[in-house]
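If you are new to this repository, start here. Below is one unmodified record pulled from the training split, so you can see the exact layout before writing a loader.
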Amino acid sequence: MSQRERDRLRVLQDVEQGHLTQLEAAGRIHLCDRQVRRLLLRLREQGDRAMLHGLRGRPSNASSRVPSSRRFWHGYVNAMRISDPRSPPSTWPRKGYP
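And here is the target side for that same chain:
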């Protein structure tokens, strides 16, 4: 757990014990009061683990084996049914025309 997550946990535990209000906690950890309420709910449900990032130990949702530029190009080539992507546009098949 990072120092930032430990600090958040300490402040939220103070809110749970009644030493701080949700608004005071929001000011201390630089979040809005709505986010503090959401964190408190997660803290009650999951315990200390609620402070950890949800993707800790897992790959990013944005990760992919193929770079996005290559994914785009291959999708474009397949959509246009181009046999040789280096061929001039005049030789490409025209969609919707016989």
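Two things worth knowing about this chain: The first helix runs from residue 3 to 17. The chain has four helices and no strands.
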